[in-house]
Amino acid sequence: MKFTLAFLLCSYVAETCLPPHIWETQFDTEYDCLIKGYEESLLKMKEIGPYDINTHRMYIKFGCYEAIEEINYEKPYNINNIITTIIWMHDSCSISRIYTD
């Protein structure tokens, strides 16, 4: 199983998040994915800096998700039947995959 890392940069002031940033490299373990998420979040916060973080009340959320390549290929899938959805609700976001027949 491989994992994909997705980041969201959000603002309490704007009450919204930017579209997700998907990390290009996939990870062999969820642990490695999470460690990279924490490391990169800290680097990005430092890059943005305290003025913007405090002024806009910015924060970063991230999650590790099973990579879509982990489809069970024993069952024939049509790529058009694999739907990735991003659900936005005020201050939160979840990314889910729906596999249809």
General description of the model:
This protein has 101 residues and is an alpha+beta fold. The chain has a domain at 3-71. It is built from 2 helices and 6 strands; from the N terminus they run βββααβββ. The protein has helices spanning 30-48, 50-56, and strands at residues 3-11, 16-17, 21-22, 58-66, 82-89, 92-99. The strands form 2 sheets. Strands 1, 2, 3 and 4 form a 4-stranded antiparallel β-sheet that branches. The protein has a two-stranded antiparallel sheet with strand order 5-6. Strand 5 and strand 6 form a beta hairpin. It is elongated, with a radius of gyration of 16 Å. The two termini are 22 Å apart. Mean pLDDT is 78; it is low at 77-101.
Spell out the helices and strands N to C: EEEHHEEE
Beta percentage is 35-45%
Structural class: alpha+beta
**Sheet having the most strands:** 4 strands, antiparallel
Please compute the radius of gyration using only Cα atoms. Answer: 16 Å
Query: How many DSSP H or I helices?
Result: 2
Average pLDDT reading:
78
How much helicity do the residues have? 25-40%
- Looking at how many chains there are and whether they match, the oligomeric state comes to single chain
> What general outline do the C-alpha atoms trace?
elongated
Number of strands: 6
Distance between the termini: 22 Å
